[in-house]
Amino acid sequence: MTSRYGLEIRAATAADAPGLAELLTEAGQASAGRVIATRLEALRQGPGTVLIAQEWGPPSGVIALHWYPSLLEDRPVAQVTLLLVGQDSRRRGIGRLLVKAAAQAARSAGCGALEMALAEAGAAMQGFCAATGFAESGARFTRSLRRQS
Q: N-acetyltransferase domain: from which residue to which, for each copy (predicted)?
Protein backbone atom coordinates (compact mmCIF):
# COMPACT_ATOMS: atom_id res chain seq x y z
CA MET A 1 0.00 0.00 0.00
CA THR A 2 2.48 2.63 1.17
CA SER A 3 6.24 2.57 1.25
CA ARG A 4 8.53 5.07 2.93
CA TYR A 5 12.21 4.66 3.70
CA GLY A 6 12.00 0.88 3.46
CA LEU A 7 8.80 0.74 5.51
CA GLU A 8 5.87 -0.93 3.81
CA ILE A 9 2.25 -0.56 4.95
CA ARG A 10 0.07 -3.35 3.60
CA ALA A 11 -2.84 -5.64 4.40
CA ALA A 12 -1.96 -8.39 6.86
CA THR A 13 -2.07 -11.99 5.65
CA ALA A 14 -2.04 -15.34 7.44
CA ALA A 15 1.72 -15.48 6.75
CA ASP A 16 2.12 -12.46 9.06
CA ALA A 17 0.44 -14.24 11.99
CA PRO A 18 3.63 -15.42 13.76
CA GLY A 19 5.10 -11.89 13.66
CA LEU A 20 1.82 -10.37 14.83
CA ALA A 21 1.72 -12.91 17.66
CA GLU A 22 5.18 -11.68 18.75
CA LEU A 23 4.06 -8.06 18.56
CA LEU A 24 0.91 -8.76 20.58
CA THR A 25 2.85 -10.79 23.16
CA GLU A 26 5.25 -7.87 23.62
CA ALA A 27 2.19 -5.72 24.40
CA GLY A 28 0.85 -8.22 26.94
CA GLN A 29 -1.81 -9.73 24.65
CA ALA A 30 -0.35 -13.20 24.06
CA SER A 31 -1.99 -15.30 21.33
CA ALA A 32 -0.68 -18.22 19.29
CA GLY A 33 0.19 -17.59 15.65
CA ARG A 34 -2.44 -20.08 14.45
CA VAL A 35 -5.12 -18.25 16.45
CA ILE A 36 -4.03 -14.91 14.93
CA ALA A 37 -4.13 -16.49 11.44
CA THR A 38 -7.71 -17.66 12.03
CA ARG A 39 -8.73 -14.23 13.33
CA LEU A 40 -7.11 -12.48 10.36
CA GLU A 41 -9.09 -14.66 7.97
CA ALA A 42 -12.34 -13.90 9.81
CA LEU A 43 -11.58 -10.17 9.76
CA ARG A 44 -10.74 -10.32 6.06
CA GLN A 45 -14.24 -11.68 5.40
CA GLY A 46 -15.97 -8.82 7.26
CA PRO A 47 -16.27 -5.07 6.81
CA GLY A 48 -12.82 -3.91 7.79
CA THR A 49 -9.11 -4.48 7.39
CA VAL A 50 -5.90 -5.16 9.28
CA LEU A 51 -2.81 -3.30 8.08
CA ILE A 52 0.77 -3.88 9.14
CA ALA A 53 3.91 -1.79 8.99
CA GLN A 54 6.91 -3.87 8.02
CA GLU A 55 10.53 -2.94 7.49
CA TRP A 56 12.25 -6.32 7.73
CA GLY A 57 11.44 -9.38 9.76
CA PRO A 58 8.25 -9.35 11.81
CA PRO A 59 5.79 -6.43 11.61
CA SER A 60 6.81 -3.21 13.36
CA GLY A 61 3.20 -2.15 13.88
CA VAL A 62 -0.42 -3.08 13.25
CA ILE A 63 -3.74 -1.29 12.95
CA ALA A 64 -7.15 -2.97 12.76
CA LEU A 65 -10.30 -1.15 11.74
CA HIS A 66 -13.90 -2.04 11.07
CA TRP A 67 -16.64 0.00 9.46
CA TYR A 68 -20.31 0.00 10.23
CA PRO A 69 -23.46 1.96 9.32
CA SER A 70 -24.79 4.37 11.94
CA LEU A 71 -28.09 6.07 12.60
CA LEU A 72 -26.13 9.19 13.53
CA GLU A 73 -24.10 9.48 10.32
CA ASP A 74 -24.97 9.55 6.62
CA ARG A 75 -21.98 7.40 5.71
CA PRO A 76 -20.43 4.39 7.49
CA VAL A 77 -18.05 5.03 10.38
CA ALA A 78 -14.66 3.32 10.55
CA GLN A 79 -13.47 2.39 14.02
CA VAL A 80 -9.84 1.65 14.90
CA THR A 81 -9.95 -1.23 17.37
CA LEU A 82 -6.22 -1.94 17.58
CA LEU A 83 -3.19 0.26 17.07
CA LEU A 84 0.12 -1.14 18.20
CA VAL A 85 3.72 -0.26 17.39
CA GLY A 86 6.55 -2.42 18.70
CA GLN A 87 8.61 -1.03 21.58
CA ASP A 88 11.79 -0.73 19.47
CA SER A 89 9.95 1.00 16.60
CA ARG A 90 8.18 3.77 18.52
CA ARG A 91 8.77 7.50 18.04
CA ARG A 92 9.60 7.02 14.35
CA GLY A 93 6.27 7.96 12.74
CA ILE A 94 5.05 4.40 12.19
CA GLY A 95 1.82 4.93 14.16
CA ARG A 96 1.10 8.09 12.19
CA LEU A 97 1.64 6.24 8.89
CA LEU A 98 -0.64 3.41 10.01
CA VAL A 99 -3.40 5.90 10.88
CA LYS A 100 -2.94 7.61 7.52
CA ALA A 101 -3.21 4.27 5.68
CA ALA A 102 -6.26 3.31 7.75
CA ALA A 103 -7.94 6.62 6.92
CA GLN A 104 -7.25 5.99 3.24
CA ALA A 105 -8.76 2.48 3.47
CA ALA A 106 -11.82 3.85 5.29
CA ARG A 107 -12.34 6.55 2.64
CA SER A 108 -12.07 3.90 -0.09
CA ALA A 109 -14.78 1.91 1.74
CA GLY A 110 -17.08 4.96 1.66
CA CYS A 111 -16.71 5.91 5.32
CA GLY A 112 -17.26 9.48 6.45
CA ALA A 113 -15.44 9.36 9.81
CA LEU A 114 -12.67 7.50 11.58
CA GLU A 115 -12.88 6.93 15.32
CA MET A 116 -10.38 5.44 17.74
CA ALA A 117 -11.77 2.86 20.18
CA LEU A 118 -8.85 1.84 22.36
CA ALA A 119 -9.21 0.11 25.71
CA GLU A 120 -6.78 2.31 27.60
CA ALA A 121 -5.82 5.77 26.46
CA GLY A 122 -3.01 7.07 28.64
CA ALA A 123 -1.55 10.54 28.27
CA ALA A 124 0.81 9.43 25.49
CA MET A 125 -2.04 7.92 23.47
CA GLN A 126 -4.24 10.96 24.02
CA GLY A 127 -1.41 13.14 22.76
CA PHE A 128 -0.93 10.87 19.73
CA CYS A 129 -4.67 11.01 18.93
CA ALA A 130 -4.69 14.80 19.16
CA ALA A 131 -1.57 15.04 16.97
CA THR A 132 -3.14 12.83 14.30
CA GLY A 133 -6.39 14.81 14.11
CA PHE A 134 -8.70 12.93 16.47
CA ALA A 135 -10.94 14.89 18.84
CA GLU A 136 -12.16 13.48 22.15
CA SER A 137 -15.79 12.49 21.87
CA GLY A 138 -17.22 11.01 25.06
CA ALA A 139 -16.60 7.99 27.23
CA ARG A 140 -16.56 4.36 26.21
CA PHE A 141 -17.99 1.53 28.28
CA THR A 142 -17.76 -2.18 27.55
CA ARG A 143 -19.57 -5.24 28.84
CA SER A 144 -18.62 -8.88 28.43
CA LEU A 145 -21.27 -11.07 26.85
CA ARG A 146 -20.01 -14.14 28.70
CA ARG A 147 -21.24 -15.16 32.11
CA GLN A 148 -19.12 -13.87 34.93
CA SER A 149 -17.99 -16.58 37.35
A: 7-149
